[in-house]
Amino acid sequence: MEWRQDDGRVIGVRPARLSDLEPLRALYRETYGDRYALPEVVDEVRSREVIASPDWVWLLAECENQVVASLIFGRDPNHRLGKSFAGVVDSNFRGQKTMQRMLTEGLERLLHRGQTFDLVYAVVRTFVTPAFHRDLLQLGFFDVGVFPNVRKVRRYETHGLKICFSPRMLQTRRREPHIIPQVATLYQIVSDRFSLEPAKCDPGAVTRVRRAMDLSVELAPVAEAGVNGVTRSRVQMLRRSSRNLKFGFFPFHEPNQILSDPTGQVRVFLSHQKTDGHSSILGIDPGPYEPVSVLLSVAEYCEERGAVYLELLVSAYEPELQAAAYVAGFLPCAYFVGAELQGQKRCDVIVTSRTFVPLHFSGLRLTDSAKPFLLEYFKVYTERLWEDLLDA
User: Can you tell me the distance from the alpha carbon of 161 to that of 208, in angstroms, rounded to the nearest whole number?
Assistant: First the structure.
């Protein structure tokens, strides 16, 4: 794929090769300094895997033998799901719809050509120009939530979650999610957008979970990638071989730590990035404990080690797990329609997060379609603070 700019220069898009790694990294460093934290970009081994693996497509744009833009697509064939992220354009080549053209090429590969996937999601920085959001909408990307304080480059940033899907996604979607009241408005926003059916609501789930809490879980790392001879592949294998994990769906992420209690009955798969304090829970076996108690212990462990943001994905059909997440301080911030493939059905997933630093929303450029998600998140956030205050 190539095109001619207004100044006559030709830009071409192609998959990255291993020999392109250094100029690609140089583009990210020039744009973000040394604060960029995505492991697919900054970790040498991970970068090479992304370029070499058939489950990833790393596209670059070049002009006169210079790398001027980069964009990564992940492919999860088990869930027929794609991801677009890590987009960057050289400052001298912005305003020419370079990223829009690269997204078009990636969507052709993942969503349209051969009809191999049902949907693709994109994580988008909220202070990009309104014109870029309009470009994404023209490509078929719709807002379904936000990630508050998700990353820190120069300052804490709130990112947006957008999805682009084929008609198959809604046709095969599992209907009637079963949710707690704290998710109801979030679901209503998405329901109105995509003409979804009403959800069932469980108003008593949070109360039941609070009554069952057991705060005696002590967690410590029993395996960490790169420590004491433990490899990344070993940690990943242990996660894949674990059965019946709670909160076990988390695409395009891999754990680098395993936590357990002194008895060895609890197992938590965690991704923690020291660079910017971004962490994700990728699955929990709570053993004899209630999930809420394990989640509280994981949050305490992460906070002590410098985490600023902790993310958890929750099934939209299990109100008890939603309640456990909410009581543990993981608040709903996005409603990911049809994210997970179970059998022949696409299942909705609720994105929840817990932040360990004050919310920082200055400099945002929210679209009209994204703003309701942030307003709803802040409403639930303040309500949760009031609950803690009244319980004190």
Answer: 31
How far apart CA 42 and CA 264 sit, in angstroms, is 34
pTM over 0.85: yes
Give CA–CA dist 77/208, Å, rounded.
37
Block residue for tokens 């095969």: 172
- Class of domain 178-391 (CATH, top level): alpha beta
> Same topology for domains 2-171 and 178-391, yes or no?
yes
Looking at residue 156, its pLDDT comes to 66
Average pLDDT per run of 10 along the chain, which is 392 residues long? 84 94 94 83 91 92 94 92 92 88 86 78 80 88 88 67 92 97 98 97 96 87 88 89 92 94 95 88 95 96 92 98 97 97 96 90 80 94 88 68
Residue 333 CA to residue 309 CA, distance in Å, equals 13
Residue 224: exposure state from Cβ atoms within 10 A (0-12, 13-18, ≥19): middle
Q: Which sequence spans correspond to the domains of the chain? A: 2-171, 178-391
Instruction: Reduce the DSSP state of residue 356 to 3 states and report it.
Output: coil
3-state secondary structure at position 4: strand
User: What is 2-171's CATH superfamily?
Assistant: Gcn5-related N-acetyltransferase (GNAT) (3.40.630.30)
Burial label, 216 (beta-carbon count in 10 A; 0-12, 13-18, 19+): exposed
